[in-house]
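Please review this one.

:::
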Amino acid sequence: MHSTRRGGGSRGKGRSRNSRGGIGSGARAVIGRGARAGARRGRSRTGAGNGGSAMPAAAAFPRPPGRSGHEAPLKGDYAAGFAAAALHRSGAELAGREARLRMNEHWTQRFMNGGRGQRSGNPMKRGRAFADGFAAGLHRPGGNWVPVALTRTASAVVVVGPGAGTEALLQLLRLPLEEIVVVLDGAGEADFTRIRALPDITIVHSPVRIGPDVGLAVGARMAASDLVLFADAYVPVAAEQLAAMLAKAQAGSELVLADVSGQLGAFRNWDDPARIRAFMNWSLGRPDLSANSAAVLPHVWSRPAMERIGLRLLAVPPMAHRAALEQRLRIRCSPVASAKPAGWKTGGGTAPEAPERLSAGDHIEALRAAMREKGARLALPDEVRRRSAAGGGVP
């Protein structure tokens, strides 16, 4: 497997770091031990994006009238962003990821250290106003960056198969991410060239198909950040919704799931995968999660939570979800307009029913594993049947 980085800016000296291994000895034999350049550690605040050039401002946000482009309550944040940019105008020119990282550091400081008054209002709108002011202070177009007040580093992992577009990656490039790790799973030269043209991307290229779930686990080992956002290359999700998920992880959640409840409608209209996911949550004591699961992209893990359940389990999302429930991780859900089960890719010629059968099988295996540990009834009491009267049976 080959690893390459495409990036702008010069945020300190980069250093090479070998991959932390595959998902197991068998996977290493297939994937190899690629290297990645420029891993960074130890940053207290971070961000990433695409410099505001990949998406026109008008397409990103319809800006309200006014000199700053923002309503009166937000002009203070815009002015603060403009003033923060002045601290960097006298030095080396900021560009690409470096500009976004610095902008997000200033926004984090303003939002978290400014007292209750500074933390009031809509954080998303205020952050966008601050980012626009910062961009204007650097004489760059605004309307594209989506800040998140982070005191921990954050990265994204995406598995790209043959024929995937770049829309999902463009949304990620608007976020304050340390890096975006793209695992090319059996993609061809045209796919590699298309992804390589994007700025600030770390590419891990596997010429053989390893599967999207295994690809996510490989990417998790490559990303060195405190928070890891797993996203889908085939179903773009707005950066604003992804930012809300990162904010919940920053607030202390160890696993943030995409809330798909609003897409399901009445129970009679649920598809089989949704019912299976809901049944697992109910059986393992979290009926409040409904059909939300780590088997659905996007979702966010904290690094300690991933290491607690074991990185290798990420290669089987239902097993990772079961482990998260059994470990009693702090799990929250965040609304996402478009999300789908991990591994349900449209590329590569896979029949539509094949991923569904695979997902159902993984969920059944996860439930079996839970039953082996907790008993056939998963510690749920049977308050209806008196099995003892029949002289046996499951208590």
